[in-house]
Amino acid sequence: MQTAKREIAVSMTGISKRFGPVRALEDANLEIARGSILGLVGQNGAGKSTIIKVLAGIIKPDSGSIVINGETASTLTPASVEKLGVHFIHQDRLLVPTATVGEAVFLGHEIGLGPFVSRRAMERKAADLLKRFFGMELPAGTLVKDLTTAQQKVVQITRALAQKASVLVLDEPTAALVKREVDSLFDVLRRLRDDGIAVVFISHYMQEIEKLCDRVTVMRNGTDVGTVDPRVTPIDEIISMMIARDVGEMFPKRAVELGAPVLEVSNLRLGGSFENIGFNVRAGEIVGLTGLLGSGAKEIVQCLFGLKTADGGQVRVEGRELSLSTPVKAVRDGIAMLPEDRRAHGVALGLSVRENISLASLRRYSRTGMVSRSSENQAVDGLIKELSIKTPHRDALVRELSGGNQQKVAIAKWLSCQSRVYVLDEPTVAVDVGAKVEIYNLLNRLAGEGAAILLLSSDLLELVGVCDRVLVVYRGRLAGSFSGPAMNSDALLAASSGARSNADGVAA
Amino acid sequence: MSATVLHTEAGVSDEKQAAAKSAGRRFGALVVRLGAIAAFAAIMAYFVIFAPGFTSTFNLINVVEQSAILGVLAYGMTAVIIGGGSDVTEGGIDLSIAANMGLCAAVYATLLSMGYGDFLSVLAAIAVGMAVGALNALAVVGLGILPLLATLAVLNVAAGMELTLTQNTVVGASSPLLGVLVSGSFLGISALAWALIVFSAIMIVIVHGTSFGLRLYAVGGHPEAARAAGLSVPFYVSFTYVLSGFCAAVASILTVSRLSASTPGSGELLLSVLAAALLGTVFSRRFVPTMGGTLLSVLFIGLLANGFQLLNVSSYWVNGVQGALILLVVAITSFARGSEGSR
Predict the structure, then answer these.
(1) What's the rounded Cα separation, in Å, for the pair A54 and A41?
(2) Choice between A74 and A466, residue whose per-residue pLDDT is larger
(3) A431, B81, B183, B303 — which has fewest CB within 10 A?
């Protein structure tokens, strides 16, 4: 705890909110100090986003009081909150795609004379702000839809700065950014903090919290369980505050006897991406695959999915050679796949949990061509319970679930197919800690039932914790295969950056 | 948890890729826009060469006058599409606008024939037009009915009321205002043409020069973003439907002046109005409806009908061509939008 006197910008005390039977917030408190960066962490469903929505005036709390810059705010609306100087950088890039950068920055606070706007002044001033705060120069009149994800994020922050924000709340701002962009974002946030702005930073990435924040408020089950200094309190301790269980339990161990090879890949090659890739995955085995972006690891998985067509080589499942030309064929050949972008390929957001789960396996519930609803319901309810998917009921839309639960639905879809091979592409990205553990448990269970699992991930701790063996791809070739004590994150990192190769020889 | 996530050096290539993608998209949009303009130019060139009298001053002024009614209606439709978003199925659309004009014309002509003066009759027509617009707003914003369905229902309400009022007959009308509109002219330009010019100028200034217009685009382009910027989305959307009703009322006075009567069958204009408002988007760099683009399309559609007439092609063809244009524009814009939705 710091003893320095801190000026409080926002103080929320005793906030409670119920949605029907669900208690979203219970006597939650949040204190945001001027000139500091406050991290807000917690699992999905812990109440982070609810308390932020209360502050944003989007959700009305059942009880509690909010003081902003010394003023007691009785009823908050999005407009009144902004007037008090509190600005939100939402996770979704809330910008009008067909607007120019200047229009997007000043929407709602246009520059001009009376009812008339001066587009030129808005463009010029937006360009000034972008240059001053971010050193960013864009061609005049650039449309928002032509910007990269990171640039759009920057435009959103500029929007808040243009309106003299005194409190800036960022919800998962780094989710779509690469490292270099994250670094420059952090520089900007530190500069804003030094200018006396209160910054709230919500993130799933603990190392970002550790690097950036002065204080961290941890939420669990709708209330704040503590506020600590991340430079003093170790990350492990913060994580255990979030999940109220030991981190050691995060990667559940298991003992499975490995069977015969189920997935066999040999001599796989794709021009420009990788060549001479050979490995196999045995029944009951979880094999990790990793590599830097551009190393070819991702492309290998995409070839197995049938999203890309390999130039040569063989892929066998239980001895049968596959022609992996389209995803449809890959599925028919018994490969269950979990693509990285679950929103685009993994689940149908507009369909119910039940429909999503039974989509890939409808044939199993239908004898006469008609779907037998009762056997379908039974199977779906079983899976919901088994994976502890948090959904009000089986007919709730997947859109309404949290990210981790959407991912579980995507996995459940394949479980109901009873595939022999599972290929997963970054299944735990943007998923909270609790759901991660549940996904790991699930992988273990599948392996225990004799499935062969290939897990592509860039989270080295996850690979070490979950896999029996990890394959590292470097510049299109297998640079190493690690297992047992040789399988640690230092070795994996060294191999994937080309610094060292081969611990126990490449299994070809 | 993810303490040692591999960080990538891929930022640069990512950015390059995005830049290339957006450059490709901009190029595609440019091709579509230039293609559309070239097609218009080719059609016009054909008429100039082969349609007798097409380029005469008399004929061109005639086209502008004929376009006045279509133009005023198309501005209303354009405003609704801007504020409601140009999504083909869920976006803003006012199918009732032409029928509303018919109803307003009937009210105006009937009141005149009953001896009420211009002032009261015009006021009543405008009140009725805006009331129908408010009904659309209530159905779309208040009840949350899809604009396509809501305004289709209101279309029938308006058409039914018009028939009830006129008993499906022609109601003749004459008044000082109509006299000025029919035969008045200023600087050699007729009153009807002036009506289009003035109305166009007002609409262009409001939609493209004011912060109100800017916000209208934001509301239609990304309602969530508009809400996050503190704008009242329901207010803006409702406003567009009432404005559309107002446009219908103004157009009704012009149509009564042209025909010296209120006549049944004004609903047939709907297709042209829709074609003009949708076609206008191809003139915009951002592929959004604009008032200037709508004006160009209105004149284009007017010239198209006129050219067909001069070539002795049946006017029935014009309907077919307009329908084809709507399909083409909607297909092109959904295609352009589909390719950018994948991010």
Answers:
(1) 16
(2) A466
(3) B183
Neighbours of B17 (CB within 10 A): 12
| Partner residue facing B1 (CB), from A99, A149, A206 | A206
Residues in chain A with CB shorter than 8 Å from the CB of B293 are none
Q: Tell me the per-residue pLDDT of A314-337, one tens digit each, with 9 for 90 and over.
A: 888 888 887 766 766 777 777 887
Residue type, position A209, single letter:
I
CB proximity under 8 Å: A 143-162 to B: 143, 145-150
For residue B228, the chain A residues in CB contact (below 8 A) are 78, 88, 90, 94
| Domain CATH for B320 | 1.10.3470
Host domain of residue B325: 16-337
What does DSSP say about strands A452-456 and B171-172: parallel, antiparallel, or unpaired? unpaired
Grouping H, G, I as helix, E, B as strand and the rest as coil, residue A19 is strand
ipTM reported for the complex surpasses 0.90: no
Chain A residues near residue B7 by CB distance under 8 angstroms: 178-179
Within a domain: residue B130?
yes
Domain-embedded: residue B8: no
Q: Would the pLDDT of A361 be above 70? A: no
Cβ distance B1 to A436 less than 8 Å, yes or no, reads yes
A-facing residues of B in 135-174 (CB < 8 A) are: none
Sign of CA dihedral A473, A479, A481, A487: negative
Q: Is residue A432 less than 8 Å (CB to CB) from chain B?
A: no
The tally of domains found in chain B comes to 1
Helix (H) or strand (E) holding A477: strand A477-483
Give B 39-78 residues with CB within 8 A of chain A: none
Is the per-residue pLDDT at B339 higher than 60? no
> Among the ranges A494-498, B10-14, B269-273, B331-335, which has the highest mean pLDDT value?
B269-273
Cα angle: B59, vertex B61, B64; to 5 degrees: 115
CA angle A283, A493, A434 (to 5 degrees): 60
Kindly list the residues from chain B whose CB atom is less than 8 angstroms away from the CB atom of residue A96: 217-218, 221-222, 225-226
Is position B7 within any domain?
no
| DSSP-derived secondary structure for A125-186 | HHHHHHHHHH-----TT-BGGGS-HHHHHHHHHHHHHHTT-SEEEEESTTTT--HHHHHHHH
- Burial status of residue B119 (CB atoms within 10 A of its CB: 0-12, 13-18, 19 or more): exposed
In the structure, what pLDDT confidence band is assigned to residue A342 with cuts at 50, 70 and 90? Answer: low
Average pLDDT over residues A151-179: 81
Q: Which residue bears the tokens 């799933």?
A: A204
Q: Is residue B46 part of a domain?
A: yes
